[in-house]
Amino acid sequence: MTTTVRDAVTVAAPPPGPSFGRRLRGPAVFAAVAILALVVAPLLLEPFRLGLLAKYLCYAIVALGIGLAWGQGGMLTLGQGVFFGLGGYAMGMYLKLRDAGGDLPDFMVWSGVEKLPALWVPFANPVFAIVFAVAGPVLLAVLLGSLVFRQRVRGAYFAILTQALAAALVILLVGQQGLTGGTNGLTNFFDLFGQDLAADNTQRGLYVVVAVVLLVLYLLAWQMVRSRFGRLLIAVRDGEDRVRFLGYNPATVKTLTFAVSAGMAGLAGALFVPVVGIISPALLGVVPSLELVVAVAVGGRFALAGAILGAVVMGYAKTSFSEQFADGWLYLQGALFILVMTLAPKGIFGVAAAARDLVTARRRRPA
User: Fold this and answer.
1) Rounded Cα distance, 352 and 348, in Å
2) What is the mean pLDDT of residues 264-287?
3) Is 62 exposed, middle or buried (0-12, 13-18, 19+ CB in 10 A)?
4) Cα→Cα distances 301→51, 110, 226, 334, Å
5) Of 123, 66, 57, 67, nearest in space to 95 by CA
6) pLDDT, tens digit, for every residue of 295-318?
């Protein structure tokens, strides 16, 4: 008996289509969330809180990529801070050069640099900076994935490799004071495309941009998961050797997914810099990368919406705990993670889905 292409992708094929009412539920929820994010939040939140929400949404973009790579593809990546940092530093370099107005950035003057390094010259162009913020992480992920996945490195070994890459990048950035700002990183940004970054209108506009980007990326990722490629990706997660036996190359599937995840992280980093006003090695090392993975696990790694929810919830919890329990918020954050993972291994989204299915089953039960 021969094996066809259709046989392979049906390894993870979904069950028969849901009813018309259930098909409408998803778009209705998405529309409600979009209205809440784009209309209600800017009207009700003060500029400071809106800026915090914009920061959470930047992290949610990274979490969406982790959910795609880890939740759907089984690739536990502990180094998304690398791609986040590449995007962030690309945007930060452009902003510093614009603020300098043709002179050297302030930290280079303090470090004794006399001439603008050649590496910085292209980033005076905003188009180059934005393109590099996405293309740089994608190319690095393709290079890393093509080398690693061909050797069938997976599981804990792949996770440790990505974690080591994040640690190495931090060491490199800290050691290049005159080139990267060292431990302090890049900060003190004042102008974005001719707009005052400190102005409330600019920050509200940035929030809207971040929210729109997140919504668009979610739709693209959702469509990707529901496509033929997405079913093959889930099949690779659940049985990589079986997919290889059926004639597919899992390395190609995983590399493409890893590259998409990296591009999302790079774009999030580029948006994060004007929103928060800083990019430094402390924001993209091993610990921040682990925190993002924890957030995805808390929200529910098997659902893209769960990854976004986890990033927002953990970001809000981190802010709230640190405001009210300055000395012990890390313990509370750890306790929240342990509680969710112990009682709900599939995360918050998994609990909500189970509750919904239980209610539906009771309604269908005959009297």
Assistant:
1) 6
2) 93
3) buried
4) 26, 45, 16, 18
5) 123
6) 999 888 888 999 999 999 989 888
